[in-house]
Amino acid sequence: MRSQNSLLSINRLPLEILAHIFDIARMSEWETLGDPPSGSIVRLSLVCHHWRQVALAFPALWSTIHLRDGAIYDFQFAALCLERSKHAALSVVITTLFRGVQIANFFAPHAYRIQEISVLVPFKYSCTKVPAYLSSTCSFPAPKLRTLRLCTAMWGSFDCPVLPALFGGSIHEVTHLQIESFSSWPGHTFGRLTHLALGSQSQYEKRSSMEEFLDLLEANPRLEELLLDDAGPGFDARDSRPRINLPQMRLICFITSSSERALPARVLSHLTLPEECSIRVNRDMNPSRFDELLPSPFPSDLSSLAPFRSLDKLALREDTVEFGEAAMRFSATSRRSGVSTSYRLRGLEPWGPWPEGALLLFLKAIPCAGIRRVKLAMADTFKTFSEDEWRNIFDRLPALEELTVLEHHAPAILAALHCRGSSDEGGVPCPHLSSLQLLRTKDLDVEELLRLGRARASCQHRLKHLMVSPGTGKISCSDHERLRSCFDSVEVVVTEDEPIFEEPEEMMRLPFGKDISGQY
Amino acid sequence: MPTIVSVDDSTVPGEGSSRLLLLVSSDNKHIVVEEDIMSRSRFISKQVEGFEATSQRHAILLPFSSFVLNKVIEYCSHYRGYYLLEDDPDAAPPGRSPVREWDQEFLDVDRNMLLRIIKAAHYLEIKSLVGSCARAIADMIRGKTTEEMREILGVENDFTPEEEHSPSSKCTG
After folding, report:
1. Which residues in chain A have Cβ-Cβ distances shorter than 8 Å to B97?
2. CB A22 within 8 A of CB A53
3. I need a labelling partner for B23 at 20 to 30 A (CA). Which of A135, A170, A412, B105 fits?
């Protein structure tokens, strides 16, 4: 049976590849299912003799040690993992609010190889004892610590939450820092951060000042990612303070409640960012309050924010999941980065009058002159949009060359693209438009398409390429021929596939601080 | 090691903006591809550097079928000119493979094909593709019991009774 297994394709992969697969499987189980990674690797090692040999040959696969609430047995299993992980760097996950001293003593002999510590206090223990627990648990020295996550809800606390001194205060080598609830950390200095995530600073009046926050950013010029999730500074910075240059920054995310919607623009107005940096703003939206759309998610002065300079693609979607929640999302991207605003829906439907206002605010906040490609996937939200309303949007996109429309009602969109005079007089919407893709559109009328094609051709703004994937009805061979008289090329396709909304990675992935949700 | 054979100039079409490479699959299919497209492959890049040293044109023989090779070329063509962190030899390796929407569609193939692609990507040293394939395979077994994993991948339980009942095999965390 062993020789039979050895012939299987999966068992003929190079060992390091199979180990890599195990690593991804164990970590993704942790991220999505909350299963301890070392538990997963045990299951994998029990599949067959070969898998067991591979699991045992790669100590790093045993390097995540998880101590859970009320599981005495965890210490035995943790000891086994410590043994099997040999000299591999350790990642320690603590999801309990008890046995702090025992945990500290258990890890102290191995502290020299601990690179990551995550204290993820379960919500049921969201109480004022958290600082004392952290003091007792994180009392051993951790000279190699690089990643520290303190996900510690403290809903019962009315005092100013101050982070106590941890690991003897010597954690200045930390590069990845995630802190929830605590808004200040006297005694700890950070100067090597590449990833910073602050969350759940629900006590607005106790937050650090903008000056203190900017001091922290200034002290960490190698920052690559910043997440402010219901957290951030107050608004007290001097306007005269020079902007802080963060040349390595690749991703800034704001997740804001309705009461702090001005925060992103205020923080961004103090920064100088490189072209490679993506900026994502996610807001709560109360659909009964139009004023909550304001102010703009981005500052009015974009001169120091290079990501805004090369935006050439716009995607408007109502079916996205942003930071793990259903959202409506507007994004503008370049090849390497982008900016987006999204709205948490939380059970709300993304239609009603406010999305149009939100979209126009977004289009006003970004430089639209360079947008050459647009994907529209807001069929439900904009189903009542009139020709004038579409026209209002298209008029903001003078350089548009390619328009992709998914599942929308076609007539108003097509009517809005008609010429109404010469291009000199501004009578030609999107004068550079050459490619139109109508995917699974509703109420598609071939006569209307022909009229559009002829009208644009007659005013020297011929549409070159048309792709049609009818959602209702069908296009006959004769219709196909007639369409070819108005467009250089016509493709009629039948597709049930979802179109791909390709965006730079930083626009899509979960940032540090949101990458392990659901595990505690 | 791959076998490298000299080819007649006429075998390779004329040069355009990017030079052309001749890749020969294990089923002896000759595939001409622009060098730019395959520059994501560290293996191919190293081969090309070798060509430059000898100023000769060569074909590169690869130990996998044209079907698999075409899939790899499709992947490289899609990401032509795109910066992917995993493929940057000078960048620190990312902690984990990012999920790319297009890759998920691209790798929606049967298990055996997926395993062939990951082997080819490993051979060609295309780390981003190795990472995406590994994630796709990991997704197949994620959250599954040991028995379910055996069933999905057609693996038999080949432990001896002693191994199966060893104390450490009882630990499941």
Report:
1. 24
2. no
3. B105
